[in-house]
Automatic annotation (TrEMBL):
Higher taxonomy: Eukaryota, Viridiplantae, Streptophyta, Embryophyta, Tracheophyta
Protein family according to the UniProt entry: Belongs to the PRA1 family.
Keyword Phosphoprotein: no
One of the GO BP terms on file: vesicle-mediated transport
Keyword Transmembrane carried by entry: yes
TM regions (residue ranges): 66-85, 91-107, 119-139
Name under which the protein is recorded: PRA1 family protein
GO cellular component: endoplasmic reticulum; Golgi apparatus; membrane
Bilayer topology annotation: Multi-pass membrane protein
Domain of life, source organism: Eukaryota
Record's function text: May be involved in both secretory and endocytic intracellular trafficking in the endosomal/prevacuolar compartments.
Subcellular location: Endomembrane system; Membrane
Pfam family, one: PRA1
Record keywords: Membrane, Transmembrane, Transmembrane helix, Transport
Length: 189
C-alpha cells in the first residue's frame, strides 16, 4: 500500500467561489429582513392589554398585521416546520418552498414585476401562502398542516389583538410612508 495516507487530488479544479455574489446575497438578506421588526418590540409585555371593544380589537389586528407582517410570516413558517418534523417528504417540500419565500418575499431589492406589471408585497405573500399550503397538501400531511396553520392563525390573531398599536411607529414619517404606500413597504437597498 504505497498510497496509504496520500490525499487524492482531483483532475478537475473546483469552481472559484464568487465572493461578490455571496456579498450581494448577504446584503440582500440583511435588507430583506429589515422589514422584520425586532422580536423584543413584538413581545413587549408592557404593550400587551385587552382591547376596549370589538372595533378596537379589529383596529389593532389590522395595524399589527401590517406592522409585524414579516415576523408573523416567519412565525407561521416555523410552526409549519415544527408540525412537519415527522413527515420527511412534506419537510423537503417545505424547505424548497422556504427558498421561494426567501428569494421572492424576504430578499427582494425592489418590487416584483411580472409581465410588465408591478406586484405588491401583499399579493406576493398571498400567492406564496397559497402555493405553500397547496403544495404541502399534496404530500399527504393534511391533518398536521391544517392543524398547525389553524393554530398559527389563532395565535397571530390573538397577538395582533392584544398588542397595543398606539406605540408602534417611532416617528411620524415612518407611519406616513406606510399609510401612503398602500400598506406595502419594500426594503431599501
Amino acid at each position: 500500500m504505497t498510497n496509504y495516507g496520500a490525499i487524492p487530488t482531483s483532475s478537475h479544479p473546483s469552481p472559484p467561489i464568487d465572493l461578490e455574489y455571496i456579498s450581494h446575497v448577504k446584503h440582500r438578506l440583511k435588507a430583506g429582513l429589515a422589514t422584520r421588526r425586532p422580536w423584543r418590540t413584538m413581545f413587549d409585555v408592557e404593550s400587551m392589554s385587552l382591547p376596549n371593544g370589538f372595533f378596537d380589537a379589529i383596529s389593532r389586528i389590522k395595524t399589527n398585521l401590517v406592522y409585524f407582517r414579516a415576523n408573523y410570516a416567519i412565525a407561521v413558517l416555523f410552526m409549519l416546520f415544527v408540525s412537519l418534523l415527522y413527515h420527511p417528504t412534506s419537510l423537503l417540500v417545505l424547505a424548497i418552498l422556504v427558498v421561494f419565500w426567501i428569494f421572492l418575499y424576504f430578499l427582494r431589492d425592489e418590487p416584483l414585476v411580472v409581465f410588465g406589471h408591478q406586484v405588491d408585497d401583499r399579493t406576493v405573500m398571498i400567492c406564496l401562502s397559497v402555493l405553500t399550503i397547496g403544495m404541502l397538501l399534496f404530500t399527504h400531511a393534511t391533518g398536521n398542516i391544517l392543524g398547525s396553520l389553524l393554530t398559527a392563525v389563532v395565535l397571530v390573531l390573538i397577538h395582533a389583538g392584544i398588542r397595543r398599536s398606539d406605540n408602534l411607529y417611532s416617528d411620524e414619517e415612518a407611519a406616513a410612508a406606510t399609510e401612503t404606500s398602500g400598506l406595502t413597504s419594500y426594503p431599501s437597498s
